[in-house]
Amino acid sequence: MTDSKPVGVALLGYGTVGEAVYRLLAENRHHFVQRIGGDIEVRGVAVNDASKPRDGVPAELLTDDAVGLVERDDVDIVVEVIGGIDYPREIVLKALQAGKSVVTANKALVAAHSAELAAAADEAGVDLYYEAAVAAAIPVLGPLRRSLAGDQVKSVMGIVNGTTNFILDAMESTGASYDEMLAEAMRLGYAEADPTADVEGHDAASKAAILASLAFHTRVSYDDVYCEGISHITAEDIEAAKTAGYVIKLLAICERIVDAEGVEKVSARVHPTLVPKDHPLASVKKSFNAIFVDAEAAGQLMFYGNGAGGNPTASAVLGDLVGAARNKVHGGRAPGESTYANLPLADFGEVPTRYHLDMEVNDRVGVLADVAQQFAQRGISLLTVRQEGSDNGARLVVVTHAAREADLADTAESLKSLDAVKSVNNVIRLEG
Ligand code: HSE
């Protein structure tokens, strides 16, 4: 586009994020015009019910015909902030096929359908941007795509879900139960009416898939990510972690690993994790997000900030919108999908993890040896073993060195059937 026509924008969705995008675009349009090198105009806002007035949006911009809007000749860029998967997939594909660049904040859509979306963008020679899909305002996808394009990323690990971080942090600071703090998260508007995607780790798993794909130049989908949420974490787990010098965080962990045959693979997983109290991720409180990137030449980098909310998400959407608009005005494309490395994906069972286990055992001769034997016979080395007296026997707290996840899980199961072991509690993986 080399003439002076304004870049036309279609906004799909007018929820918390859509409202913030529209408002900030209107408030800062004069800045955007300078940064883009051309004018920008919203051509329409697609909503469910176009007859319902939306504060600040002229009635003539509202439409319930999203397909008609994205296919209009005067629309150059489509901003999708509807959420969900099937309906936005249909509209975004139509937009790309019609030659429109797309900016989306939709992690579930990108994590489930990145191959199809990237192919459609390539076919049409347009941009597909989704910085807001991971950790909202925190610029982490741009650095992975551009700033670290000259480096080899070894791992990306972090807190990428604000709701679960709020719940775990509140459980830690108040001693309250998971249910109480989930109710508090819902009351404060952090958790959705249906909080399943957050608390069961699905939201973080979508983000892990996107991070792993970009970091390792390998396509990783939502279904490839091992996912365990926080709904089973008890106040006792939090207390036991505290006593042992840890906090529990829901981490997304994406790594390059080398398997037993020396083959390099990619692993992506989400699960509650014990983090030592002095680890930087332990100090990430409330609903904040933080992401550690470890790269061969750069070393460790940390990104921290607001991972949710209207304005923070709109900040990332608008950054992408400016980039896509510049390309419309001046020509050129953003970096597309890079999957050239195409590394095999590791089974979760072969990924090296570390376990913390807390057991109630009989206080008698040979118990420690029986327990240690279960680890030794699977080649698992122990880092620390601590025994304390308890009301009805003894409490044994074991922290292992890294071993194959499958061997650790098998050991935890077999310990439960030992005569000397009354219960195995607080089986939580550990990092850092
Ligand atoms: N619900 C997410 C969170 C934000 O709690 O972090 C959007 O991904």
Structure, explained:
NADPH binds at residue 107. Its cofactor is a metal cation. The protein has 432 residues and is of the alpha/beta class. Strands 7, 8, 9, 10, 11, 12, 14, 15, 16 and 18 form a ten-stranded mixed β-sheet that branches. Strands 3-2-1-4-5-6 form a six-stranded parallel β-sheet, sandwiched between helices. It has a two-stranded antiparallel sheet with strand order 13-17. The model has no long low-confidence stretch (mean pLDDT 96). It contains 14 helices and 18 strands. The chain has helices at residues 16-27, 29-36, 66-70, 86-97, 107-124, 141-147, 162-174, 178-187, 196-199, 202-216, 235-243, 310-330, 367-376, 405-416, and strands at 7-12, 40-46, 62-63, 77-80, 101-104, 128-129, 153-159, 226-227, 246-258, 264-276, 288-295, 299-306, 352-353, 355-361, 382-390, 393-400, 403-404, 421-430. It binds L-homoserine. Residues 161-163, 198, 203, 307-308 line the site of L-homoserine.
List descriptors.
HDH_cat, binds L-homoserine, about 425 residues, Homoserine dehydrogenase, Dihydrodipicolinate Reductase, domain 2, 18 strands, Alpha-Beta Plaits, 3 domains, alpha/beta, elongated, ten-stranded mixed beta sheet, Rossmann fold, six-stranded parallel beta sheet
